From TrEMBL:
GO biological process, one term: phospholipid translocation
Record-linked PANTHER family: PHOSPHOLIPID-TRANSPORTING ATPASE (PTHR24092:SF198), PROBABLE PHOSPHOLIPID-TRANSPORTING ATPASE (PTHR24092)
Protein name (Swiss-Prot/TrEMBL): ATPase, aminophospholipid transporter, class I, type 8B, member 3
Gene Ontology MF terms: ATPase-coupled intramembrane lipid transporter activity; nucleotide binding
GO cellular component, one term: plasma membrane
Organism of this sequence: Nothobranchius kuhntae
Amino acid sequence: LHMSAPSLVDRLRGQQCPLSRHFLTALALCHTVTAEWKEVSPVYQATSPDEEALVGAARELGWVFLCRTRDFIEVS
């Protein structure tokens, strides 16, 4: 999956779309996907292709799931 929508990302990161920002944050945080690092970007592994697609879509829109530990989840 690769999308390029800089104007949409700008709008989502701004104050115009708070519900959309919350939705994308939830996509980036609420899953069982793991991230394996290959070169400079994460490659996602998931038991469900749907979960992998949702986390990947959030990444393409600027909410990048980086890693998960027992105590925290890192999103950029």
